[in-house]
Design goal:
alpha/beta; nine-stranded mixed beta sheet; 50% helix; disordered N terminus
């Protein structure tokens, strides 16, 4: 036990701070590597170098969980009773509905389940190690701490390690850190209080790609102890939150089930008390349960969400989880990345500085020698073609084109004879070019101002060359500082014309060193990753919609603040903090400052997770964007995880609920608008279903209390609930968004479906439909029998008043609910909406009327539904009764609109 603890402590050391020799000593290894025997012992001690995943539920467990609902149990009981009382068709229909809902729920759960498969794909299948002084290839899962990794271009690092050798070693760690630029590696121990992961250039990390050079590293961590293993651990520990709609529907179904159960029991005992036969009392209770429960609700919610995903996909938002559709509607915080989401993810020259004046790209006026010389220098001291090459140099090529200086023309005039390439220590580069027109050799250089300015002793100012003074240097530094404080990258340019003697010595190394001395300062250019054209408007729309945008980035705080300010995310009084500053904050302090913090810079995966959790503790529905492996835990934890479709890793896409096909922040706002509309449509569809069901409940209750025969058979109610009601409900789900949807504040995630106004509308509308339905039932009950008007052959059921009354009630309720579909499209009247804005509602009404006609007039269906033949005046009465509730509801809406 003591040995294991000691081993764990060794693995948790900060290896980047200590010399490589000491690292080998601490790990009990050497440059000759481990022995095979020692490697086998360590494999048992530390385990295999693999990522572990928590155990998941089996599909059959998920399937059975779909039946753990009181409403479902009531329907199962109703199906059993129906089967025992010769109503087999009703029990079959109920069983089929329950099975369909369970299959849909299971399929959606399995689809949404996150795995670590894409994270495992970042692991190398094999690793080359040194053991007992010999290089050999082994399965990557057998790599252990203390092994010596051999690293060459094209290799995926199999584990975390401390570098022992690094010969021009360059590594791409973008999948882990989110930074796309290659990292130059070394072996020197690092010093400093806080060194972020991206700055540990003497370490190699599992899953990183070696892009150039070669190296050796001693393995310091394997499996779940690696940096990528920590991310896997965070993903395993992160529980996905239930969506607001799921919470609302669960609460709603629980209350509905309790209410239905109470009313059914009351009606049953009331019938028994009045001396009704036991079977009749049971059938009344079953009919009431079937009338009250919206059997198709689950399927309709799923279908409406699925239709919402299709619309979003057309607008570049790919929804992976159906439940994410409506959750978007109540998002109140969007934590967004900077690069590529708010910005264009490409460098562009924004301003230039020459003759001690600043000029915007595209705002040039007239010809200026200083401007022409600046762009000539920028394009000659450049290794990009404009379409390929280093991003900064591509940006300079595009800037020169915009100013009318073309690289192709310069290439015809100037012949490059030599180059001193850029490196990270010198921070500058220069070229020697032969001017074919004059025969002179000229030097052109570019680099950071602090690296290039000491090489200059003259300056090109308003068409003439003069001495560079101390005041000039201060003014140049001030301009550089101003741009830097705005988050721009600044490049300085200089040139020099060689004399004749110099031309003869251009190949000598000693002269090459002299190229960058005695230069003439030309000017500077400020480059930035510009905002997308639509970003400002999208951020403004988010704020108008009551959504708080927050930037979370791995970039420098100055750059991040500048971009956030331009985008409208960072307002006066807003704060920018870094990852280390966040580490020093306690939970209480973070909660107090959370609303003020607009920008988080230099953050790690744990920081992102902490920020999301802090907002969620405040009860805010939070969306999080990300593209790297390091974003995956926060994407999974957020209410809505949003991955980038173009730049995102497979790991981030797997962890997210939504993928932006165009990596655009504006697309998120469109998706939020669609999400709000989907939720509104779902709620309207639920209102339609429940108000109709409420009418059925009132009818059954009235018949029971008035000692009337049961107005409906279970098959009648199932036909209404599953067939004729489903069509208008789906049509309501297709209702287009109304104007001003994004000007409303997001709904609270705690807001349930059964609000006071919602319940009031259900009761009033259900009561109106019930009154008209029972009025039709009373008309049928009062009818007189007449020969030859029965259901069966030979007229053996000749005009039974009970059959006529039941048929009139069933027809009125069905038609009234079909008309009611138009009422539930919106809070506005049909006069304002018009029929053409949603033709699906018209088609649903027509299809429902045709199905009802088939039940009433097709002989086989007429028998199945025990439908009596109705006379023409009875049909007219039914149509009037069915239309009255809609006329009254529409009149009330028109009056309300007139007042507003």
């Amino acid at each position: 036990m003591e040995t294991a603890a000691k081993g764990k402590a060794v693995l948790e050391m900060e290896w980047f701070r200590i010399p490589s020799g000491q690292t080998l000593e601490e790990l009990g290894s050497s440059r000759q590597g481990l022995s095979h025997q020692e490697a086998a012992v360590r494999l048992i001690k530390y385990g295999k170098n693999v990522l572990q995943e928590r155990q998941k539920k089996a599909w059959w467990q998920v399937f059975l969980e779909q039946f753990q609902d009181l409403l479902v149990w009531i329907l199962i009981a109703a199906a059993i009773v129906s089967a025992l009382t010769d109503n087999g068709e009703s029990s079959l229909v109920i069983g089929a509905v329950l099975l369909l809902n369970a299959v849909l729920g299971t399929a959606e759960h399995q689809k949404a389940e996150k795995s670590l498969e894409s994270l495992r794909a970042l692991s190398a299948p094999e690793a080359e190690v040194i053991r007992e002084g010999r290089r050999e290839k082994i399965p990557a899962e057998e790599v252990v701490p203390g092994d010596i990794l051999v690293l060459e271009a094209g290799d995926l690092a199999a584990a975390d390690g401390r570098l022992l050798e690094a010969v021009e070693l360059r590594v791409n760690e973008s999948s882990l850190t989110g930074e796309a630029a290659e990292v130059e590696k070394g072996t020197i121990p690092l010093k400093g209080a806080e060194i972020p992961l991206a700055a540990r250039n003497n370490m190699i990390f599992s899953g990183s790609l070696v892009t150039g050079g070669r190296g050796l590293a001693v393995v310091t961590a394997v499996g779940m102890d690696t940096e990528i293993g920590r991310i896997a651990d965070l993903m395993n520990a992160t529980e996905e939150k239930r969506t607001p709609l799921e919470v609302s529907l669960d609460a709603f179904s629980g209350k509905l089930a309790a209410g239905i159960l109470a009313v059914c029991v009351m009606v049953f005992w009331l019938d028994i008390y009045r001396g009704e036969p036991l079977l009749d009392a049971v059938m009344f209770a079953v009919a009431l349960a079937v009338a009250a429960i919206p059997e198709a609700l689950g399927s309709i919610v799923t279908i409406v969400q699925a239709m919402g995903t299709q619309k979003m996909a057309r607008e570049h938002a790919i929804i992976k989880e159906l439940k994410a559709v409506e959750s978007l509607g109540c998002v109140s915080v969007i934590c967004t990345d900077k690069t590529g989401t708010l910005t264009q993810n490409r460098m562009e020259a924004e301003e230039i500085f020459y003759d001690f004046q600043t000029e915007g790209i595209g705002s040039e006026k007239g010809k200026a020698d200083g401007r022409e010389l600046l762009w000539r220098t920028a394009l000659l001291a450049n290794n990009s073609s404009g379409e390929s090459g280093e991003p900064t140099e591509q940006a300079l090529c595009r800037g020169g084109e915009a100013a009318g200086v073309r690289g192709s023309q310069l290439e015809r005039r100037y012949l490059r004879k030599g180059e001193i390439p850029f490196d990270s220590r010198r921070k500058r580069m220069s070229v020697c070019c032969l001017d074919r027109e004059t025969g002179r050799e000229e030097i052109y250089a570019k680099g950071a101002l602090e690296a290039l300015l000491p090489c200059c002793d003259r300056i090109f100012d308003r068409g003439r060359i003069r001495e560079l003074t101390g005041e000039d240097r201060n003014r140049l530094k001030e301009a550089n500082q101003r741009w830097s404080s705005e988050g721009m990258r600044v490049l300085a340019f200089a040139c020099r014309i060689l004399d004749g003697s110099g031309a003869e010595r251009t190949e000598r190394p000693s002269f090459i060193k002299d190229w960058e001395q005695g230069l003439i300062f030309v000017g500077m250019a400020a480059l930035t990753d510009p905002l997308r054209p639509e970003t400002k408007a999208a951020v403004a729309a988010a704020r108008e919609a009551g959504i708080r945008p927050v930037m979370i980035t791995g970039d420098h705080p100055v750059t991040a603040s500048s971009i956030a300010r331009k985008a409208g995310i960072l307002k006066p009084g807003g704060l920018t903090i870094t990852g280390p500053e966040l580490d020093r904050m306690g939970e209480k302090e973070l909660a107090e400052k959370l609303e003020q913090i607009a920008v988080y810079a230099r953050v790690s995966p744990e920081h992102k997770l902490r920020i999301v959790e802090a907002w969620q503790r405040k009860g805010r529905i939070t969306a999080m964007t990300g593209d790297g492996v390091n974003d995956a835990p926060a994407l999974k934890k957020a209410d809505i995880g949003i991955a980038m479709g173009r730049s995102g890793t497979e790991v981030s896409k797997d962890a997210a609920a939504m993928i932006l096909a165009d990596d655009n922040f504006a697309t998120i706002i469109k998706a939020v608008s669609n999400g709000r509309n989907v939720y509104r449509n779902i709620k309207n569809a639920i209102g339609f279903l429940l108000s109709g069901n409420m009418a059925g409940i009132f009818c059954v209750l009235y018949a029971s209390l008035a000692a009337l025969p049961m107005p409906f058979l279970p098959v009648h109610l199932l036909f209404i609930n599953l067939v004729t009601d489903s069509l208008p409900a789906l049509a309501i789900g297709m209702e287009p968004p109304e104007e001003g949807l994004l000007k409303q504040p997001p709904r609270s995630g705690k807001e349930g479906i059964l609000t006071v106004n919602f319940v009031k509308d259900l009761l009033v509308q259900g009561f109106l439909i019930a009154i008209c339905t029972m009025a039709a039932f009373r008309m049928g009950w009062a009818s007189k029998a007449g020969p030859g008007m029965g259901l069966g052959p030979g007229g053996e059921l000749a005009r039974d008043p009970e059959a006529v009354a039941s048929t009139m009630a069933f027809t009125t309720l069905t038609l009234a609910r079909l008309f009611h579909g138009f009422n539930c499209r919106s809070a506005h009247s049909i006069l304002r909406l018009g029929f053409s804005s949603n033709l699906y509602s018209v088609m649903a009404f027509e299809a429902g009327v045709l199905l009802l006609a088939a039940v009433l007039f097709v002989p086989g269906l007429q028998t199945l539904f025990a439908a009596a033949d109705l006379r023409s005046y009875e049909i007219a009465a039914v149509m009037i009764c069915a239309l009255i509730p809609t006329i009254l509801i529409q009149a009330q809406k028109i009056l309300r609109e007139g007042r507003t």
